[in-house]
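To: structure subgroup
Subject: Chain for Friday's discussion

All,

I'm putting the inputs and outputs inline so they're searchable in the archive.
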Amino acid sequence: MPQSFHPPQRMLLGPGPSDVSPRVLEAMARPTIGHLDPQFVAMMDELKSMLQYALRTKNALTLPVSAPGSAGMETAFVNLVEPGDTVIVCQNGVFGGRMKENVERCGATPAMVEDEWGQPVDPQKLEDALKAHPEARTVAFVQAETSTGAESDTRTLVEIAHRHDCLAIVDAVTALGGTPIETDAWGIDAIYSGSQKCLSCTPGLSPVSFSEAAIARIRARTHKVQSWFLDLNLVMGYWGQGAKRAYHHTAPINALYGLHESLVMLQEEGLENAWARHRSNHIALRDGLEAMGLSFIVATDYRLPQLNAVRVPAGVDEAAVRAALLTDYSIEIGAGLGPLAGQIWRIGLMGYASNPRNVYVLLGALESILAAQGYKLTRGDALAAAQAAHAAQTDAPKAAVND
């Protein structure tokens, strides 16, 4: 006879999902009401407003897609890309490759701008690609590449796209809530994210936002959007403003309660303070790891604070370290993907999980496991370095979010 599932209590320090705040879990347990109930509609309006705050935008078409971040990606592509289009796709990790796949499935041609994994997108390569493809209508790139922990210069890449009369699609799945995003100030045309990273909600929702220029292209399409469910011409009717909504689908009501609560928490903390907290905990983790002799694959200038790609030292069994963390300490970290498989650990400090306690517990556990494998280190150095880093930053984060 099947029994109820009771998951273990984990510390989620991988590439996502991240730890979910108890406030979010409590919100999701509240009574389910109808997806067209006036009270739910009022909550939807609040949620849209808070997403606009988080994304730094006034875009009217800002909403959570009722599916994970991958559906947010697909929403951007199926609505903005038509058969026969040329799309410049920048790839410096796994998720640029998924963009390419979306372009091809839309019947369009991807023109690839490729950079080494662990490097940001090279603006000059994008400029050259756009000169070589004057027919291109769209540029797509990942701001925060989850597979490597590298952050690209979104403002510059969008400016280049616009100079060549292209719309810019930006993947901000790992960025939102953890590192600066300025949708309006940077001129981003379409941006998508996920609920399970730095927003610390459960997986299953994808915040998206589209500019007026993007909406104009959607309305001017000569082919139907290939996905009925993700067709924004239809979804706009449900996520419009005010009490009158056109039924499109039954929204994931309780999941939206959770996202609403996570965005309330983000506003309570303040967006800039959230960015500073992620930066502060990253610096403490960095100093602790370096005290153990470990290093990062991404250079400091474009290293994400919320996703740390750490080199596995010679002679260390990377999979055994991850297994020991999970089995002995109930801590989850991530493995490398693609060409980085077996070479790195991906350590996430996202949202609710980005706090000093998690940094210290992880460092202590890593010291024990690495020492047991024969790796040479001095026990206690990592914790001391992390604590010193936090102490040194007590008054610094608000003034140095982007350092």
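Points worth raising on Friday:
The first helix runs from residue 22 to 28.
The two ends are 56 Å apart (CA to CA).

D.
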